[in-house]
Amino acid sequence: MTPLKKYYSNAKFLITGEYLVLHGALSLAIPLRFGQLMEIYESDTTLLDWIALDRAQPWLQFSISEKDILIAENKGTSEKDFVCFILNQAKKLNPDFLPNLSLKVKTEINFDRNWGLGSSSSLINNIAQWADVNPYELHELVSNGSGYDIACANYCLPILFRRNESHPMIYPIRFEPDFSDQLFFVYLGNKQNSEESVKKYLNGNPVTKTQVESISLLSKKLLQSENSMEFDALISEHERFIAEVLHIDPVKTKKFPDFEGSIKSLGAWGGDFILVRSDLGKREVYRYFYEKGLTTIFAWDDIILS
After folding, report:
1. Would the keyword Kinase turn up in this protein's UniProt record (predicted)?
2. Which residues 6+ apart lie within 8 Å of 64 measured at CB?
3. Position 300 confidence tier, pLDDT thresholds 50, 70, 90
4. pLDDT tens, residue by residue, 125-146
5. Which of 36, 121, 139, 304 has the fewest CB atoms found within 10 Å of its own CB?
6. Angle value at C-alpha 194, between 168 and 154, nearest 5 degrees
7. pLDDT digits (tens, 9 = 90+) for 178-206
């Protein structure tokens, strides 16, 4: 069956400015080769039938009634609740959206949803496209994040991002380090709940204008780094800075003190992915982390959308 409509949104990595991006820090974010597809089909039922696939395997299936959408005034406790809440808020932004529910929606992510690459943000962006509404407005209504992930969902180049409610400042850029063959992304195997991480951070960490400006400057410097030595120094400085803000030790200090190279946390600290830069060579980098039990590793060029 041919879909009536089809939408796609990219996954993402936030390279600089984690947490402080919420306060308007200029941050470097990069769209990935991974993403989420959403297809809309005709249906002969009176309900909106929803099926979600994870790398071609169904992991979620439910039906949605008009009442389900009407009463969904918060995120609820289940995936169905969250989908209904997004649809509810999308209809508030565009009352002409979903005049009837005789449809089937199929979503599919082509990455492990435990990796924290943006399964929620890519869904929000796809629904915003479907509803013909501003994706940043919809995101503000259903999420407490900065919106950088929505920007990555729509761009095919790295971006510098600054939060500004429903109209963020986004600057598409070229970021192609000469030493990209020395850059790797390693999954730590402990998915972080972005919403909870943001909530906890906002409740416990007052941020100064000077801190925001410092991270913004680091983001710019990282883009201008001319060699791996300068890149390493900036990565280490960024880690120390965020560690002081969060009162948490950097991941290299805690878990990989003997690693020959630089390591930076990405996104919510404590899990998800890390960015690694090393002179060791691909085989030795992989061997080091494999011996630590970490086997999900991507080379820069294998995952970055370009």
Report:
1. yes
2. 47, 48, 49, 50, 80, 83, 84, 87, 101
3. very high
4. 999 999 999 999 999 999 999 9
5. 304
6. 40
7. 999 999 999 998 765 565 666 566 566 67
Helix, strand or coil, per DSSP, at residue 190: coil
Q: How far is the C-alpha of 153 from the C-alpha of 128, rounded, in Å?
A: 11
- Whether residue 174 has pLDDT greater than 80: yes
Rounded to the nearest angstrom, the gap between the alpha carbon of residue 17 and the centroid of all alpha carbons in its chain is 13
Phi–psi pair at 26, nearest 5 degrees: -70, 125
Give the span between the Cα atoms of 262 and 231, in whole angstroms: 9
Specify whether the CB–CB gap between 131 and 137 falls below 8 A.
Answer: no
| Distance (Å, whole) CA 273 – CA 111 | 13
Count how many residues are written for the chain.
Answer: 306
Tokens of 54: 């994870």
> And the tokens for 149?
């992930």
- Span 16-74, pLDDT tens digits: 999 999 999 999 999 999 999 999 999 999 999 999 999 889 999 999 999 999 999 88
The 8 Å CB, 24+ separation contacts for 146-151 are 146/21, 146/22, 146/27, 148/12, 148/14, 148/21, 148/27, 148/29, 149/12, 149/14, 149/29, 149/118, 149/121, 149/122, 150/121, 150/124, 150/125, 151/29
The burial class, CB within 10 Å (0-12 / 13-18 / 19+), for 43 is middle
Which domains are present in the chain?
Answer: 5-172 (3.30.230.10), 180-303 (3.30.70.890)
8 Å CB contact between 196 and 219: no
